[in-house]
Write a structure and sequence with these properties.
Elements: H1 20-40, H2 47-65, H3 73-89, H4 102-128
Helix pairs in contact: 1-2, 1-3, 2-3, 2-4, 3-4
Length: 139
């Protein structure tokens, strides 16, 4: 009896995540571009609209998180928060810590980066380790 196996559906190697410095450089560059764009549009003049920038940076952190390892997520969150804090929340150039706001912002960015990383790792592992089941003509 001859059994056919589809080779294309076999186990594939899990892609290696990008190096952490590359992930951080991407996060920093993307955050800077987003914050400058929001500033040029005049969206950062009011504190309430800084939440729109936080949402955009959270999406960026999740997308950048798909590239890296879990150890890169805290650095990604802190870099995004620092650029948002320096250019959006306060007068340009001041880095400060507002105890009622900043922990939530950092937690939001960290959660987004971790969710992006976890999603990518699960997605890649699922694609790599699909089970091969031989064709059974008897069923």
């Amino acid at each position: 009896m001859l059994e056919w196996w589809d080779i294309a559906k076999g186990a594939r190697a899990v892609p290696e995540p990008m190096a952490t410095p590359f992930v951080w450089t991407t996060a920093c560059s993307g955050s800077l571009v987003l914050v400058i764009t929001f500033d040029l549009l005049g969206a950062l003049d009011r504190t309430g609209l800084a939440l729109a920038a936080l949402s955009a940076l959270s999406v960026l952190a999740a997308l950048v998180g798909t590239l890296g390892r879990f150890v890169a997520a805290p650095g990604t969150a802190v870099l995004c928060w620092a650029l948002l804090n320096v250019f959006a929340a306060h007068p340009t150039g001041e880095l400060s810590w507002a105890g009622h706001r900043d922990p939530g912002w950092v937690a939001c960015l960290l959660a987004a980066a971790l969710i992006g990383t976890a999603t990518a790792r699960v997605w890649y592992a699922r694609a790599a380790y699909r089970r091969l089941s031989p064709f059974d003509g008897a069923s």
